[in-house]
Every structure is written in C-alpha cells, then in structure tokens.
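Page 47, continued from p. 46.
Same chain as before, 133 aa.
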Amino acid sequence: IDVPFHSRQLLPGVSAFRSLLEPRFSYASIRRYKERLIGQYIPNVYAKPFSIDRLYIEKVAEVTGSANLYRLLETFETVDDTQKTRTLLIELLAHQFAMPVQWIDTQDYIFSRRSQRIMEMGPSPTLVGMAKK
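Result:
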C-alpha cells in the first residue's frame, strides 16, 4: 500500500479519524491521566511538550488549521482544563497522520534537556535508528 502518511494530502481524512478517536477518550479518563500528558508528551505535529496554555493551543491551531481548536480558543476562559486537554489531544492525534512530522525539532528539544530515558512505542525501533544518525 502506498499512502502518503504525514502528508497534507490526507487532511480530508482527519474528520473521520477524529470521529474514531472521540469515543475512546472519555472526559473521565482524560481527567485521570491529563497530568501524564502535560509537559511529558511531545506531539509530532508540534515539537513542544503538551500544554493547555492558550499560546500553545494557538500555535497548534495555526499549524493544523483545526476549527475545533479555534472554537476552543473562543471559549478558553470558560472551559475547564480537562476539556481543554481532551480537545487538544484529540486534535493532535487526528492531525498527526496528515501533517509533517517535526522530528528534528523534537530531537533538538529532547537532547537539549539531557533526557535520561526516551521511550519509543511501536512495532520497530524506527525513531531510535533516526536518532542515532
């Protein structure tokens, strides 16, 4: 199968992928695990640690063009942190297959922090191999 993953050619599929993600991320589960995301998760769409700060969400909205994130920003002051986390996480994941991977910036961030442990989850050590180069 020849699919242009991480290409904007796949943007029309974001909505369908989002609809698959939304029921899998309940408000309760996000409330329970949000602290594991904030400052820890580095999305490949925007190579900075996950944050629910307004500026971070603005930057992700600019990169993705996500209407859902722009709506979140319109109501930012009235939405609780769990809902901000849920909306942002779903939008990042929904867009990741249709956006260029910011791997060099991600590596720069990780290596500049002198990280002690980096975990790669996947079927093969793809990122480890790229990092060694």
